[in-house]
Amino acid sequence: MKKLKLITASLVIASALASCSNNASLADDLNNSGDSIVRFVNGTFAAEIYNTSVESVYNITLLTLNNEKTYTIDNKSIHEGSAEINGTFAVDKGLFNDTGKDNFQIQIIKEQGSTVKIFIKLGSLGDKQQSVDLFVKIKSNLGL
Questions:
Q1: What CATH number has the domain bearing residue 70?
Q2: Where are the alpha helices (DSSP H) in the chain?
Q3: Residue 98 to residue 4: CA distance in whole angstroms
Q4: Three-state DSSP state, 92
Q5: pLDDT tier, 115 (very low <50, low <70, confident <90, very high otherwise)
Q6: 22 and 70 part of one domain
Q7: What pLDDT sits at residue 21?
Q8: Do 49 and 144 meet the contact criterion of CB atoms below 8 Å apart?
């Protein structure tokens, strides 16, 4: 019985430490995103990018998605003041997803001045870490 309690306590401690490590990694990734204001609400990652334009962010986002090889772009459009990119990306096959693909949606909207907002939703529930990773790559490709 003592061994069972010790094993249970060890598992609880290990999972708590792993959770802290994941949160620290996510915080580091967000800090690497620069001066942007970022949020993750209802599965959608939102961030502001300063000193750029909708067209620049749109073009760099397309380049980043094409370079990643896990994303397939189905629809894309750009208008004055906004842009949208939709498609699918590769995920692990599982019980609830036997196709190995899920949908993504990216919206780019002009704010005041030279500020652009980008909204990234990966999958039906959103994937915070993968959204942050994609955003960091987009900002890096923008040279910011």
A1: 3.30.310.220
A2: 2-32, 54-68, 128-142
A3: 36
A4: coil
A5: very high
A6: no
A7: 45
A8: yes
pLDDT score of 73 more than 60: yes
Domain that holds residue 136: 36-142
Specify whether the CB–CB gap between 120 and 132 falls below 8 A: no
Per-residue confidence band for 143, with pLDDT thresholds at 50, 70 and 90: confident
Tokens of 49: 């990018």
**Two structure tokens written together for 82:** 């906004």
| Euclidean distance between CA atoms 127 and 97, whole angstroms | 15
State how many domains the chain has: 2
Q: Measure the CA angle with vertex 133, ends 20 and 98; round to 5°.
A: 90
For the record, the structure tokens of 94 come out as 């599982």
Backbone angles phi, psi at 33, to 5 degrees: -75, 0
| pTM (two decimals) | 0.73
Least Cα distance to 37 among 107, 104, 117 occurs for 117
Residue in the block written with tokens 């620290």: 24
93, 135: one domain: yes
